[in-house]
Design brief:
This protein is α/β, with parallel strands linked by helices. The chain has helices at residues 3-24, 85-92, 131-138, 164-178, 192-201, 205-211, 228-234, 247-259, 261-265, 270-273, 294-300, 307-313, 372-376, 406-417, and strands spanning 40-43, 51-55, 68-72, 95-96, 108-109, 114-118, 148-150, 184-189, 212-218, 280-282, 288-289, 330-336, 338-346, 361-366, 389-395. The strands form four sheets. Strands 7-1-8-9-12-15 form a six-stranded parallel beta sheet, sandwiched between helices. A four-stranded mixed beta sheet has the order 11-10-13-14. Strands 3-2-6 form a three-stranded antiparallel beta sheet, covered by helices on one side.
């Protein structure tokens, strides 16, 4: 950890940024002599990547259109006029083969007749939520889809499934080569840092030393969050991150999350959380469940078919042991001081629960999406040898405002100009 060196360089770097802004205003392709830009690759948050779903002769939901297409992403401005929300949920619900003879990452598949792809993969168009970030980078000379690229992913899936690792390595290597063999800085938001961390911990030290400049983690959801446990019963609509208002929608959405491995990847890890928060209270029995009780919760809810899936992916991201450190310079940011939902009191443990104004929600401090336990877990990386680590608190800044927060963006511009540390 080399915070002293980092701090002493900030004043000089700020002066450099002023010069860069003057020389490169308007998105010029030129670069100030001796100050080439560090290219960036962004890993978006949970369902902030545009997905294009193509349906051809599907039979899983006979009440829905047999063929057509729709898009799935937060704040989708092209909502389907053909497939309603329940149909979309049913078509996006993964098939799961519980056979123990099949490796877990190979047990998941789309419904027959359904294909899912990232729309505009690699480009800023694939994750429009981050426009303020792109524009800030452009103000200092960055160019979209040249030295700003996006490593989007299907948020239903975990990073060990399919071609995520190979595809992401390629976009980073391409970005490196297309920008004069300049190491790439990774930026992740929310669940995005989990996917970036998987990449960093599944590549060699030599690869990281060549291709990676550093890693900015914006509220990384590394040990998960309590909110995902109630979602197993209530569902959650991606378009507005709101709870379903009808029983049919709540049931279809809950089933979607029950079959998605990323649900368990994103649920609070009992090795970090223990019993420090209640995630479910069953009003019909009076029982309460903490993250430590997730197996009991799954059994009591008659979701035994998902037990192996949960056991495999709850706590999948290990960050506390030295072998799981990213071993690159890390600039972490978080919000705090915002009331954050971490659980709920439900009528029972049946799928299709509707959250109403009278539903009791369990609250603790956090950033409005992730609790303090989650956002502070990254402090384990202070123990990294050789590499810089910092965690900056942004009091009062909520989870979805963090990527556009002016103070965070200012620090990011500084961090992008700093030389990376190396480990002998």
């Amino acid at each position: 950890m080399r915070t002293t060196r980092y701090q002493t360089m900030v004043v000089a770097v700020l002066a450099t940024l002023v010069i860069l802004a003057g020389c490169q205003a308007g998105g010029s392709g030129s670069t100030a002599a001796g100050n080439p830009r560090t290219p960036v690759v962004l890993f978006p948050a949970f369902h902030l990547t545009k997905l294009l779903i193509t349906v051809h002769d599907q039979v899983v939901a006979p009440e829905c259109p047999r063929s057509g297409s729709f898009e799935d992403w937060f704040r989708n401005d092209h909502p389907s006029t053909i497939f309603n929300q329940v149909c979309q949920d049913k078509l996006l619900t993964l098939r799961y083969n519980p056979s123990p003879s099949i490796p877990m990452p190979q047990r998941f598949s789309n419904q027959q007749g359904v294909t899912v792809e990232v729309k505009d993969y690699g480009t800023t168009d694939s994750a429009p939520f981050y426009e303020p970030l792109y524009k800030t980078l452009e103000s200092t000379g960055y160019r979209r889809n040249r030295d700003i690229r996006v490593a989007g992913y299907d948020a239903r899936l975990t990073p060990d499934i399919g071609e995520f690792l190979q595809r992401t390595q390629k976009i980073i290597e391409d970005t490196y080569r297309d920008n004069g063999d300049r190491p790439v800085h990774l930026i992740g938001h929310s669940n995005g840092p989990l996917y970036a961390h998987y990449l960093l911990t599944h590549t060699t030290r030599a690869w990281r030393a060549q291709y990676i400049h550093g890693f900015t983690s914006l509220a990384g959801n590394f040990p998960g969050q309590g909110l995902l446990y109630p979602v197993l019963f209530t569902g959650l609509n991606i378009e507005d991150f709101g709870y379903p208002a009808t029983k049919d929608n709540a049931a279809s959405s809950a089933r979607l999350y029950q079959t998605a491995p990323s649900t368990y990847l994103s649920a609070s890890d009992p090795t970090v959380f223990g019993d420090r928060e209640t995630v479910i209270e069953d009003a019909s029995t009076g029982r309460t469940y903490t993250p430590r009780d997730y197996r009991k919760l799954i059994t009591d809810a008659n979701l035994g078919w998902a037990k192996d899936m949960a056991d495999y992916y709850v706590g999948f991201v290990k960050i506390a042991e030295p072998g799981s450190f990213p071993d690159v310079d890390v600039y972490a940011e978080k919000g705090s001081g915002v009331p954050t939902v971490v659980g709920a009191r439900l009528d029972n443990l049946a799928s299709g629960q509707i959250v109403t104004a009278s539903t009791k929600l369990f609250i603790r401090d956090g950033d409005g999406n992730q609790e303090d336990i989650t956002n502070n877990a990254v402090l384990a990386w202070r123990a990294m040898r050789c590499f810089h680590f910092s965690l900056t608190d942004n009091p009062g800044v909520d989870h979805f405002a963090l990527p556009s927060n002016p103070n965070m963006l200012h620090r990011l511009l500084v961090d992008l100009t700093l030389p990376p540390h190396t480990c002998p």
